[in-house]
Write a structure and sequence with these properties.
single chain, 8% strand, 21 strands, alpha/beta, 7-stranded mixed beta sheet
């Protein structure tokens, strides 16, 4: 039985697989209605559409109907949405079709197609309404360059055409509309015909050629002048353009509906509105406004039904993303949304195209039952992004044979992907190919073959071939003419083209075999071999590309770029470097150091790939050498050579990867592609080239991941050799296998690793504890102590000793990293430092920094910072013998008054502590002696010098030796220090009292020295203060001070007793004068206050000279007061007589001026020796006195 004999209808009958809105011939319409399949999905859509339509009819005039007049029909490319729209137009118009002598109305074709009687009744009721349907493809109706109102212009055009008006010239259609409204249109047409001798409808689009006839016919019809008619014609187009808007258009539609019955409806059925709008914000707003105004102005009687490959939310989403406008209204205008899915297409193809004749169904069922297992195996896929359905059961097999179920899913993806990536011409992009057409084309190709044949994917290629862009089609055509290729190569190329842009399936060899299955019992192994050979030929011709195990079709641009990539030159070093990067950085996770678990030491790695170093470090503790199939002498690396090489340099790890032919190809492709992409990103590449470069970058990213995965497996399964042995480390990953191998290498090449019998849990903390310990015995430093790593301690001590005897400096960093960190030890850094700290603390070693031995209390700070290790020198220590040690202890007891502890370290600490204490005290006393007020300056300076020299000895050996050498000096020093300490800590207060008393007594020294008891006491005080070592004299101080103090106090009291009465006498005299002068308070204060102050000073003054001076000062102050009083003139009082008038002015008596007479000054000579001398003196005295009296003066004789 042949395939073509299986179908209920001829498989090669003419089927209009692509429905066009403007294709309305009777034969096409009849076939469309007759063969239309109402699927389960379409049944639901019919219900929703007619439900909304009848609701609007039943609620005519309801304002809420505005949101019901928009219907949005969406579906993927070729899903049948245009067909559904056209069937709706036939049903709504209930069009009558005549074909082959038969006549039927559209509704009659649905008898039997609609199983639900209620739905059938709703459809009949709807089509019974007066309905005008305007069906059109908006893209074909649109004028180029229509601008923002393109959709409005198209709606107006088809509306005008529907009414019989001009479609191309809206202003002419507007003239026709106005004439029709006045019942003058027929008259105008007749007048025009009479003048132009042509029918108006035939020539109206060329009206400018008949301008005179048009003007005259218009003037005759409307009774206007020719000039007026011509003026209208000249301005008509511009005038109409100014009036053209959505609102006026909606009113024109309303005017038309109002001219018909109230139940009349008008539907605009618009195909492919989504593609026309694209992401144009203005067009979307234009559609929104049209739908809204038609709804509001026409009251639900005008409908808009559109189709789009995207649902309304997706279209609005694209527009929003570009302009961010609010399109919430349009979503409200298209509340009825119908979406056609792939299931609908599948069902249509099965029922319309593949429906089997009842006579063959049993035979096909038997074929499936016999071959079901084979079919499941034949139609299996590898690494796909979705589940491609196999035959579900015999019924499924019968309904889709000779196709496979997955082809319905895959071809939908193919059509969408090809259209999306723009490799087809405009026809396919506009939907002029359908799934139905593609399946029919493929089925016809095998129509004459026997049952058992299956349709491979390349059979679908002819259905789109004529619509492909030339560059794509020419690639496949040239392949067919290529003598180096075979026929199957072209089929493979077609297959790879069809799936080129389908993300859900890759061009893996196993998938290509499945896509090539052309009969149920095809031999997959043979087919695989043929396809594999074909891919090699196509790849050699650069017709296909390869990304790992996936192959893909190359366009012309991709082919050129692929050739250029292949021509990129690479050096062996580049390949090795990149391979080393993948192995060590990706597979082995960037491992640069390996932490050995037995002691937590980090071992540095020297990493080699094909003997080329990877990374900057080439002196690591461990050598890891990876030999790959890319090595020039890879074939020489037998087990024997690998074993031998792994024993070199004290032992290393050698890893040999198994041979892999794909590794080199993938590696070279990655490097060539990477270099090419970097080179091409120079700003000059075209948009297409940039797209291809991005794709190559993505392929390279995947290729890199494949290489990593491939090398991960190769490294896990590699051959490992270490220390002359072929080993088999285990692990779940390549990194864990490497870890085990490195552990083996360390354990078998570091033979003194075991000397560290015990590892510290926290070496840094233990170092601190060791160096701060006070009891050496507690630490277990003895080499015999089991807990002290005795072998390791002995090894460190021996190594330092040998290096010292060879006059080689022992640097801590070198000891830690280069000596004990490497073979044969491999000890952790901090464990080595801990061993050194133990030996330093025990006294075997000293650490020297900047030429000075570090004291034990500074060792921890030095060793805890690794950066300081390079500056720390390790030296062996000298020790003091027991005899000298005991002598030093006895001397220390004599010097310091107490016996120090036993042991060199303890004695060293004791001496440093006590000398340090002396130095601290003496340093505090020294600034006091510098002033000259305190004794001991020379003793302190000499003592500090001795102490400084002793403490300058950094080692205990030097300090103790110097201590014994200066025995006598130290005994004298001890005595001086004790005297100084006693003075400054105990006697200093008495000394300060002595200094203060002596200073105070100096004020009255002249009077005190006249006293027999005070004079010797003052002299003794001066002797004590001047003594260089007055320490034994301090006991006399209190008695001396008391003796002088008594005399001094008596003298002060005596002088005060003589002076104070004299001051009081002056005060009394001034007060008398003030009273007589009736002086005010201010004057009294100024005259008396200075004398009162002077009296207070005398009462507290301790200086005898100052007390005596106060008597003379009192007289001077009194004279000043008298002068102030004499200068005053008391004011004259105003008196009132008995009669109330002023009394006569009283006489003011002014006080007499005062003359001070110093009698001694009148004596003619120093001494009066005779009577004449007396007479002369008295006469002169008389004359002066009489003169004063004559001058009304008062005389005070002094």
């Amino acid at each position: 039985m042949l395939v073509k004999e299986l179908f209920a209808k001829p498989i090669d009958r003419p089927i209009n697989g692509v429905i066009k809105a403007d294709q309305a011939d009777s034969a096409s319409v009849w076939q469309e209605l007759d063969e239309y399949v109402v699927t389960r999905e379409l049944d639901v859509h019919f219900r929703r559409f007619f439900g909304a339509f009848l609701e609007a009819i039943d609620r005519t005039g309801d304002p809420s109907l505005v949101g019901l007049i928009g219907v949005w029909i969406s579906g993927f490319f070729g899903s049948g949405k245009s067909h559904f729209l056209k069937i709706l137009s036939y049903l709504l118009e209930n069009r009558e079709i005549t074909w082959n002598g038969r006549t039927k109305r559209a509704i009659e074709f649905f008898d039997g197609k609609i199983q639900d009687a209620m739905l059938a009744a709703d459809i009949k009721r709807a089509v019974g309404t007066e309905i005008d349907v305007i069906l059109f493809n908006i893209d074909s109706k649109a004028d180029s360059g229509s601008g923002r109102d393109a959709i409005l212009r198209v709606f107006l055009k088809v509306f005008n055409e529907k009414l019989g008006y001009s479609g191309d010239h809206p202003h002419i259609a507007d003239l026709e509309r106005r004439l029709a409204a006045q019942d003058q249109l027929d008259s105008f047409k007749a007048a025009f015909h009479a003048l132009a001798h042509v029918e108006w409808e035939q020539e109206r689009d060329a009206y400018s050629f008949y301008a005179d006839e048009l003007v005259q016919a218009l003037a005759e019809t409307l009774g206007k002048s020719a000039e007026g008619a011509r003026s209208w014609l000249d301005k008509a187009e511009e005038d109409f353009r100014s009036r053209l808007n959505v609102e006026n258009f909606a009113r024109w539609v309303k005017d038309y509906l109002d001219s018909r019955s109230p139940q009349h409806r008008l539907l605009f059925l618009v195909d492919e509105i989504g593609g026309f709008i694209g992401d144009d914000t203005h067009l979307m707003l234009n559609l929104q406004t049209i739908t809204e105004n038609l709804g509001t102005i026409c009251g639900g009687r005008a409908w808009v039904v559109v189709t789009s490959q995207e649902d309304i939310d997706a279209v609005i989403g694209e527009v929003r993303a570009s302009k961010a406008n609010d399109f919430s209204k349009i979503q409200g205008r298209f509340k009825t949304r119908l979406s056609l899915s792939s299931a609908n297409v599948d069902e249509v193809i099965r029922k319309r195209l593949l429906n089997k004749d009842e006579s063959v169904q049993a035979a096909l069922t038997q074929v499936y039952e016999d071959q079901a297992d084979i079919l499941r195996h034949q139609l299996s896929f590898t690494n796909v992004g979705m589940t491609f359905k196999p035959y579900a059961d015999a019924r499924d097999f019968v309904s889709v044979y000779p196709f496979a179920p997955y082809q319905f899913q895959l071809m939908q993806k193919v059509f969408e992907a090809i259209r999306r990536h723009g490799v087809t011409g405009l026809h396919l992009a506009r939907g002029e190919r359908s799934m139905l057409d593609a399946f029919q084309s493929a089925a016809i190709q095998v129509a004459d073959e026997a049952v058992g044949v299956l349709i491979p994917l390349y059979r679908f290629y002819p259905s789109i071939e004529s619509f492909l862009e030339g560059v794509v089609k020419s690639t496949i055509d040239h392949a067919a003419d290529n003598d180096r290729l075979e026929p199957i190569d072209v089929q493979v190329l077609k297959t790879l083209f069809l799936i080129r842009y389908v993300d859900e399936i890759r061009g893996h060899l196993d998938n290509l075999v499945t896509l090539f299955i052309d009969c149920i019992d095809a031999d997959r192994l043979v087919l695989r071999q043929r396809i594999e050979g074909s891919l090699q030929r196509l790849e050699k011709e650069t017709l296909v590309g390869r990304n790992g195990e996936d192959f893909f079709f190359l366009t012309n641009e991709e082919r050129d770029i692929s050739r250029e990539i292949k021509d990129i030159d690479l050096s062996a070093a580049e390949e090795t470097k990149f391979l080393g990067e993948l192995i060590f950085e990706e597979v082995y996770k960037g491992l640069r150091k390996h932490r050995f678990p037995d002691n937590n030491k980090d071992f540095g790695l020297t990493r080699l790939c094909d003997l080329h170093p990877h990374g900057s470090r080439t002196e690591g503790d461990l050598i890891v050498s990876v030999i790959t199939p890319l090595a020039d002498d890879y074939g020489l690396y037998s087990d024997g050579k690998c074993t031998l090489d792994s024993a070199a340099d004290g032992g290393q790890l050698l890893i040999r990867l198994d041979d892999d032919k794909t590794l080199s190809r993938e590696l070279r492709t990655w490097l060539q592609t990477d270099k090419y992409v970097v080179r091409k990103h120079d700003g000059t590449a075209s948009t297409t080239t940039l797209r291809i470069l991005r794709e190559r970058q993505e392929e390279n990213r995947e290729r890199r991941q494949r290489l990593i995965h491939q090398l991960e497996e190769r490294c896990k399964e590699a051959h490992y050799y270490a220390v002359g042995q072929h080993i088999q480390p285990k692990g779940g990953s390549a990194a864990s296998v490497l870890t085990e191998a490195l552990n083996y290498l360390i354990r078998n090449s570091f033979n003194k690793l075991g000397y560290l019998a015990r590892l510290s849990a926290n070496p840094q903390a233990e170092i601190k504890a060791v160096l701060n310990a006070t009891d050496v015995d507690e630490l277990g430093f003895s080499l015999e102590a089991g807990q002290g790593n005795q072998q390791a301690l002995a090894e460190v001590q021996s190594t330092v000793g040998l290096m010292a005897s060879a006059n080689r400096p022992v640097i801590l960093e070198d000891l830690v990293e280069n000596r004990f960190g490497r073979r044969p030890y491999g000890w952790p850094e901090w464990e080595v430092v801990l061993l050194v700290a133990r030996l330093v603390r025990r006294g075997d070693f000293n650490l020297v920094s900047d030429g000075a031995v570090l004291p034990i209390d500074r060792v921890y700070d030095a060793v805890i910072t690794p950066s300081k290790w390079k500056r720390l020198l390790i030296i062996q220590r000298q020790t003091v013998d027991q005899g000298r040690l005991q002598s030093a202890r006895q001397l220390a007891r004599e010097v310091f008054g107490q016996l120090p502890p036993d042991g060199e370290e303890a004695l060293d600490g004791f001496l440093r502590e006590h000398f340090g204490g002396w130095r601290t005290d003496l340093t505090q006393y020294q600034p006091l002696t510098a002033s000259g007020d305190y004794p001991g300056s020379q003793e302190i300076a000499e003592s500090l010098g001795v102490i400084a020299k002793l403490l300058a000895e950094s080692e205990s050996f030097g300090l103790i030796s110097r201590f014994l050498e200066r025995r006598d000096d130290l005994l004298d020093l001890s005595e001086s220090v004790h005297e100084l300490r006693h003075f400054y800590q105990t006697q200093r207060s008495a000394w300060d009292r002595l200094r203060q008393a002596h200073s105070r007594f100096q004020l009255n020294r002249d009077w005190l020295e006249q006293d027999a008891g005070a004079k010797p006491a003052l002299q003794r005080m001066q002797e004590i203060l001047a003594a260089p070592a007055p320490y034994g004299m301090i006991k006399e101080v209190e008695g001396l001070i008391e003796r002088v103090e008594q005399v001094n106090a008596a003298l002060v009291e005596q002088h005060r007793t003589a002076v104070l009465p004299a001051i009081d006498a002056q005060i009394d005299k001034i007060q008398v004068e003030l009273d007589e002068a009736k002086a005010g308070a201010d004057v009294r204060n100024r005259c008396l206050y200075p004398l009162q102050q002077l009296k207070s000073q005398v009462e507290s003054q301790a200086s005898l000279a100052h007390i005596d001076q106060a008597a003379r000062r009192a007289v001077e102050l009194a004279d000043s007061a008298f002068s102030r009083i004499e200068s005053l003139t008391p004011p004259a009082p105003t008196l009132v007589n008995d009669k109330g008038g002023p009394s006569p002015k009283p006489v003011v008596v002014k006080s007499k001026p005062r003359r001070i007479l110093r009698a001694a000054e009148l004596a003619p000579k120093t001494y009066l020796e005779t009577q004449d001398d007396i007479d002369a003196y008295l006469n002169k005295l008389r004359q002066v006195l009489e003169s004063a009296i004559a001058n009304h003066e008062r005389v005070e004789i002094r």
